[in-house]
Amino acid sequence: MTSKIVTALARRWGADASPASCISRGANAVYRCESGAGRFYLRITSPGARSLELVAAAIDWQRYLHERGAPVAEPVPSADGHLIEVVSESGRPFFATVTREVQGDRIDFTNLPQITAWATAIGRIHEASGDYRPSIVFTSAGTVEGELPALPHQWEQIASAVTDDPLLRSHFELGSQWMRQQSAPTLLTHADVRPGNTLISNGGVTMIDFDEPAIAWPAYDLARMMLDDDGRLPLNAEAHLAALLNGYRIAKPDVVIGPEEVWHFLSIRALLMSAWSLEDGDTDTGWLTRLRTVLEQRQPAPSSGRLTTRLS
């Protein structure tokens, strides 16, 4: 995408004449912009990365959460009242959204009190999500109804990607069995709760990025919080998990989540990320190696329907 289009998009949210600063590239490019109303972050989703319906679902849920006081960055409509501005370059559509700046620092993945506060914030998001129903989203291309993927459907879609690898296939079979056994209600989860999507300050923890919401079980979010941005487990995984569970109970005392549930969903999440990366074909091999290490440490026990742990 050319700088001319980025500038034109930023102006739709009232950006001043100073150039937008790119702080993240990839399928979702993020730019820091200045305006008379304060700093904001412009996110531009590339063609093929997400459909307009998926982008609409994510920004609509984030709007809903912010309006109910959940700890999330505030989505900002453009000057024309659109939560999503759609532009085309060479016949390809790009989808732009904006959130207001949040002050804070990245979560310290080694700081257990911060991990506890992080899990409490996720519990508050889950609590606020209970009554959420998708609404119509106004975009510059017209109104759009968001599309919310469900974890079991995402799981079914990776079956062909894991068939030829015994380790991946065994985790797929166990994950399928585990999800079929779940009787607890699902809800809309963030699904990518990692340090890079989180800021912490004296005011608490705020989630700043909503890219992959999915209908799943609450422990699915806690499972992703067991890995850092590079796909590594914490050095003291058991203490880290205990901090997560303690923090979540502060916000959701009536929800019972045990360690085994989080470990199962961690294997599910690690396998999903592995399969998506394999399908992408352009992923850093180190990322795939680290995810495989996680799966090797959580080996399915033969014919037991359980995981055995080999944490180093």
Task: Give a description of the structure.
The protein is an alpha+beta fold and 312 residues long. The protein has 2 domains: 3-101, Phosphorylase Kinase, domain 1; 151-307, Aminoglycoside phosphotransferase (APH), C-terminal lobe (Aminoglycoside 3'-phosphotransferase, Chain: A, domain 2). The protein has 10 helices and 14 strands. It has helices at residues 3-11, 52-67, 112-129, 151-157, 159-162, 166-180, 218-224, 237-251, 259-280, 285-297, and strands spanning 21-24, 28-33, 40-45, 85-89, 92-100, 105-106, 136-139, 142-145, 187-189, 198-201, 204-207, 214-216, 298-300, 307-309. The protein has a 5-stranded antiparallel sheet, sandwiched between helices. A 3-stranded antiparallel sheet has the order 6-10-11, covered by helices on one side. A hairpin with a 6-residue loop joins β13 and β14 (307-309). α3 packs across α8, α6 crosses α9 and α9 (259-280) packs antiparallel against α10. The longest helix has 22 residues, at 259-280. The chain is globular. The mean pLDDT is 93.
